[in-house]
Amino acid sequence: MPGDDTLLMLFVPLCLAAASFCTAQQARAIKILCTIFVIVDLSVELESFSMARFVARSEAVALIWIVTAFVDRSRRLSATDSRLRQENAAREQSERVLEELHIALTNAMPGIGRLGIDGHYLEVNEVYAGMLGYVPVELIGTGWIKTVHVDDRAQALAAYDRMVQSGKGEFEARAVRKDGSNFFKHVLMVKIVDENGRHIGHHCFMRDISERKAVEAERGRLATIVDHSDDAIVSRGIDLKILTWNAAAERRFGYLADEIVGQSIDILNPPDKQALGEQRRKLFDASVPSRPVDTG
Known about the structure:
By secondary structure, the chain is an alpha+beta fold.
């Protein structure tokens, strides 16, 4: 650089560019080295000392110090902003978890467990363990997948993936007890994150829905019997409107279910009887108390 100010003009921007892309520690090192370089350059040229040259190099050093300080400050602000965003994300996640806990309690899901990111139980309450035929200590350290029937594991794993992605996953499946017997369960999984928003496990809430599934199965069985019966089977509500209409009724009366469900049962009466049916409908409407209208 001695005797060549053009080199100085190239040197300073290069140092500033390097400081912008380096770490804070590297930027400080560049700043110090540039200062030493200029001091050495001035000491080498003491015999041809020029105030203009001294001022130019001093300004260059000052510029490097100012810019590196600005870059360092910007990095600090960026790091603070990033930390605040992570804290806000963690707080929002905690609020979502509390909301899911409230939902779980509201929906009477008495079985409660906490699992690590590896899918192994860390904590379970007695209700959760009891549903599966265990005492709590027997489940600690074991994986949850063994408690799901082998034929239902695909949907359980799909729900787990939804939980990882969106924070919550639900599924209904057959559970496997310790003795190998089965029952139907409804499971709600809620993601757990640390202060940096990283997934570290999940809460698991469970309830036994075997009774509901049995009722649904019985209803399905009865519906199948009705649908396949050779007898016309029709049901109506207290308002005389048709609720169900099987295939035999379609064949006998000529109406499709989509056409007649919701119509008055009087449609099946001969024309000379329909007037009587209309009178019955009016009597029914009159017997239903009307809701008071608030005029205030």
